[in-house]
Amino acid sequence: MGKIIAICLFELKRTFKNPSAYLLMFAMPLIFTFLFGSLFGGNADQTIQMGIVDEDETELSKQLITQIKKNELITYHISTESEGAELLKQQEIQGIFTIKKGLADRLIQQQKPEITFQHLPSSTVAPIVKQMLNDAVLTMSLQISSAQTGSQYSGENWNDLYQKLAIGAEDQRVLTKVSSSDDASVNVLNRMSYSSAGFSIMFVMMMILSVTGVFIEARNMGIWSRLFTTPVTKFQVMFGYFLSFFTIGWIQFFLLMVMSSVLFDVKWGNPIGLFILISSLLLAVVGLALAIAAFAKTAEQQNAIGTLIIVSTCMLGGVYWPTSITPGFMQTMANFVPQSWAIKGFTELNAGGGAVADILTPVLILLCFAVVFFTVGLSRVRYE
């Protein structure tokens, strides 16, 4: 046990002696939290302001507007073309959709309707919002096509069939919603709290990726070959390294929680639940970093591949923005990255006031990620 602790302490000292480590561990996540948390302000359901101009003014165009307004994370302003242009110019909205005349006719003829989208160059959510509109148009188009096909066989008016399909789809959505008689119990994270949790996850992953580069350095420089000539086992060496990575991650996450609480008044929730959730997350992160290191040949290659994987999965998993504003297929894909489940756990503990029992699913899934990553990584570790 003494040798394991000695290896762990050596890595801790080596990491914290590097001044640049503090920039990655603390300065960057706090800066990103402040920037993204202050970008829109308020709660996450008030972040995006968009405008809509309806030039078609038909029943179908009104139904399309009703459909896209169901996403509570986006506030839509119905206006004329001139009013919308002025709102966009004053940057009171981030973008504006214009439903061109003839939308209903084109949908009925199973043609692509003409809808233009103007947005601010600085808007980071414009592609996501545009995709949401495209999904709504596609859904409506499929419903109309199905109604027309059904009308040919039943003899019933296609419009009546379409209304039934639309109402049926709406009823299905209502059945999937979780209702609450107490508004305070609805699980919606404050934007600053959301950003703090998300970017703490992201930069802890970055830091652990950085320190696991020691595996590649030790292998390439022949350090392990010399180390194993001493009375120390591979298990002791590996466990010492894993313990150091896990400890570094916990120190970083704990201090980020303290600093975000002081600087941004972030409430993190149940301490025991936090300990279990963060420990599960760190196991998954250390396993992922080990798996990446096992496939890389140089530290530079590991850093490049790892950064690409971490940033892309953080975007997919809801670190930068809530997954609820992304298209359905991206929400499904988000279930296959650990960041998504960590965010769900923090949301339960923070906004939901949850306890340990409420985060069992995220914790178990994070542990499954850890098992998979460690299995892949350890099976490919080369000591020479």
Automatic annotation (TrEMBL):
InterPro entries: ABC-2_transporter_component, ABC2_TM, ABC2_TM_bact-type
GO cellular component: plasma membrane
Main localization category: membrane
Keyword Membrane: yes
GO molecular function, one term: ABC-type transporter activity
Gene3D superfamilies documented for this protein: abc type-2 transporter like domain (3.40.1710.10)
Membrane topology: Multi-pass membrane protein
Keywords: Cell membrane, Membrane, Transmembrane, Transmembrane helix, Transport
Subcellular location: Cell membrane
Residue span(s) of domain ABC transmembrane type-2: 118-384
Segments crossing the lipid bilayer: 21-40, 197-216, 237-260, 272-296, 303-321, 359-378
Assigned protein family: Belongs to the ABC-2 integral membrane protein family.
Protein name, as recorded: ABC transporter permease
Species this chain originates from: Cytobacillus depressus
Biological classification of the source: Bacteria, Bacillati, Bacillota, Bacilli, Bacillales
